[in-house]
């Protein structure tokens, strides 16, 4: 009789165990924010590294702080609707707070990366273009028919 209870107890324990929730994919959530594309996409490490180093702490701390302040609004909205949040990994208003941090981080990346972009242009890109020996020949204009 004791053996029959053991599988039943194991089934009850397994049913009451917390289920693993979906992993929070912040990169995907940040990509859904409007205007979240990286401002220095086609630039080299001289511009990208300082911009990333400056923007990441701002984006993460401000985004998480704004998202946490929006959680009570999400809870009230769920109580008013009378139904729980859909299966989104981040609630609606908390996602708005996260997007605020992403946009502020993008602004910091633009502000920090701009001087490095100018320096790179003045001392690398523009002189390199001027000194390039294999420059394409000037375009020839078609001659008018005589």
Describe this structure in words.
The chain is an all-alpha fold and 146 residues long. The chain has a domain of 83 residues. It is built from four helices and no strands.
Q: What sort of overall outline do the alpha carbons produce when their principal axes are compared?
A: elongated
Question: What is the string of helix and strand elements?
Answer: HHHH
Task: Count helical runs.
Answer: 4
Regions with little confidence, pLDDT below 50 for 5+ residues: 15-22
Summed over residues and divided by their number, the pLDDT gives a mean of 78
Strand content: under 5%
Note the main sheet: none
Instruction: Report, as a whole number of angstroms, the end-to-end distance.
Output: 111 Å
Structural class: mainly alpha
Q: Helix coverage percent of residues?
A: 55-70%
CA radius of gyration: 28 Å
Q: What is the tally of beta strands?
A: 0
Features:
mainly alpha; about 65% helix; about 150 residues; 4 helices
Offer a quick outline of the entry.
Helix content is 67%, strand content 0%.
